Amino acid sequence: MVNFESIKKQNYEGDIKKVELFDKAYELLNGKSLDDQAEHLFLIKDEDFEEFSYGQSDGQRCTRNLTQINKSDWVDELILYKGIIVGVVINRRDVLLGKCVETYFAVDEDGTGSESVSVYHTLVLK
Fold first, then answer.
1. Looking at the predicted structure, is the pLDDT value of residue 124 above 90?
2. Which of 34, 25, 33 is nearest to 7 (CA)?
3. DSSP secondary structure letters along the chain
4. Residues 22-56, buried b or exposed e (16+ Cβ, 10 A)?
5. Per-residue pLDDT tens for 82-115?
6. Beta strands 56-68; 41-53: pairing state
7. CB of 75 within 8 A of CB of 88?
8. Which residues, in sequence order, are bridge partners of residue 77?
9. Does residue 1 have a pLDDT over 80?
10. How far is 123 from 8, CA to CA, in rounded Å?
11. Mean per-residue pLDDT, 1-5
């Protein structure tokens, strides 16, 4: 779980018009504490797995889940604009509202085959 009092925070320095859903977020979250804002912010986590042997795909599977940001084990830092949460940092990657970002990728090869995993996160309002 995320402790909003001790978690690192950074100010969003970019063009706020590039943050999808900002107007809706401002309307919904302005004036609320970070804990209250978190009740409306969720992370969609998509994981794509694929296995190969001898250059051919043996199978692929995908999973998706939705987690409130204060209950996520992935959030390392909050990105704030004038006190409003507009993004989170996951594995040193900025995940801004409405953007799908690859936050993890790995390949395990054994000479005859490989397994790969890609993890994507999207921050959404609910």
1. yes
2. 34
3. ---TTTSEEEE--S-GGGSTTHHHHHHHHTT--HHHHHTTEEEEEEEEEEEEETTEEEEEEEEEEEEEGGG-SS--EEEEETTEEEEEEETTEEEEBT-EEEEEEEEEE-SSEEEEEEEEEEEEE-
4. beebbeebeeeebeebbebbbbebeebebebeeee
5. 999 999 999 999 999 999 999 999 988 877 788 8
6. antiparallel
7. yes
8. 8, 89
9. no
10. 18
11. 78
Measured CA distances, 57 to 8, 52, 113 (Å): 41, 4, 9
Rg (CA), the chain: 17
Residues 109 and 29 sit within 8 Å (Cβ to Cβ): no
Phi, psi of 98 (to 5 degrees): 80, -5
| Residue 64 φ/ψ region, left for φ over 0, alpha for ψ in the -120 to 50 degree band, beta for the rest | beta
Residue tagged 């790995």 (tokens): 106
How far, in whole angstroms, is CA 90 from its chain's centroid? 6
